[in-house]
Amino acid sequence: MPTFTEIAEQAQATPVVCPLPRLASFYLDDLAVYTSLDNFHYDLYNPDYRFDRDVVISADDHHPDYTHLSCDEEPVTPRLNEVVDWSNREHHDRLRRELLKQSSLKNHIVHSVTGETIVVLLIVDGLSYESLRTTQLPAQPVVVDGMTTTEPGFKRIIYGDDNVSLYSELLHEKNFTNKFGFTYWDRGQEDLSTDLHAAMGNDVYRIRDFSDAVETLSDAAPFTNRTYVQITRMGLDQDSHNKKEEPDHDAVVENIIEDVRDLEAELSKQAESYRIFATSDHGILWRTQLPDSPEVILDDYKHQPRYVQGREKVPHSMTYTSDGEIVSGLAYPYLARDLKHTEWGVHGGFSYYESVVPLVELSSNSNDGDSA
Predict the structure, then answer these.
(1) Residue 293, exposed/middle/buried by CB under 10 A (0-12, 13-18, 19+)?
(2) Residue 335 β-bridge partners
(3) Count of domains in the chain?
(4) 124, 139, 183, 212: which sits with the fewest CB atoms below 10 Å from its CB?
């Protein structure tokens, strides 16, 4: 099937009718994209309208005068960094219209849950969609609609756009009266952990290893009441900095996949029906994914390499206000300072690797592990 480049070449000769995948407009930015033949014909037969670009009609219609093509090129790949201006707010808005937003995950989960006995939300601290894109674990891309740092990422997942947690929603709307929280943070020492588990009372356990959560759930079976399980797991964030040697991130990703499969296997034994949602607070931009000599935009800056706090005008950035403080995330591939020798990966800015995270959905109704 033709690629985006081949579609553009065909459109030079005649209008092309082709159902386009999401985000295709970024790759066909030089073309006029219509959503129906009727819309195109309205302009075509308007004597005052002048076409200044080649035309593609994103529809599954047929017309004898136009070339009809199909496209199966995957748009959500590292090539996004070539076509998205990560400092352009309109580009961010387009991404958020066409992909599932991180702040919409809470509502997505609530609406997806039907009659399951157990629902699990697993949040991995630092995992890019790219890390799972070509694996056997089915994932869909989710765009981080805000800063790609840990605290706001976790809060967007748990609370969405308001102050009501996912568990509170499931309790009141779906009658999930039983709950388990598992975290590697000390609840009394981490304000974020307290915020994330505020609605879960004393049913929060600190774990050292993912298997601790699986074993606890095994011991708690059988589950007679609807049960919500919330797990935070170490991801690639801890391996991305303060390491003398480059981490084996492929091995870490493989361990994450194994943990998800182990959890799925345990739930399949203990519950009549279950649903697992696995996602991440943000992705990681690895040193090897940057150009050989990325441009450093600030002089004598000593803080984070991918975002800047407290400055109103930072070049090549998108600015947000967080807890009353101005924070500017840098667009790919710019840095606020040179990377340290122990910094193998970074986050906090905007790029395909940092801003697109996975959502894995597995359920007892899945066929051979396909996402529900």
Answers:
(1) exposed
(2) 296
(3) 2
(4) 212
Residue 297 contacts residue 316 (beta carbons within 8 Å): yes
Looking at the domain assignment, is residue 52 inside a domain?
Answer: yes
> Is residue 138 domain-shared with residue 217, that is, in the same domain?
yes
Same domain, residue pair 177 and 266: yes
- Check residue 185 and give its pLDDT: 67
CA 301 to CA 308: how far, in whole Å? 9
Q: Could you give the CA distance from residue 172 to residue 167 in angstroms, rounded to a whole number?
A: 9
Compare 53 and 72 and report the one with higher pLDDT: 53
pLDDT of amino acid 200? 87
Is the domain of 34 the same as that of 99? no
- Scanning 121-221, the segments in alpha helix (DSSP H) are 129-133, 150-159, 166-174, 191-196, 210-220
Q: Would 330 be classed as within a structural domain? A: no
Beta bridge partners of 329: 307, 318
Which domain does 128 fall in, by range?
89-286+357-363
* Mean pLDDT of the 19-35 span: 96
pTM of the model: 0.93
Q: Under a CB-based contact definition with an 8 Å cutoff, are residues 335 and 292 in contact?
A: no
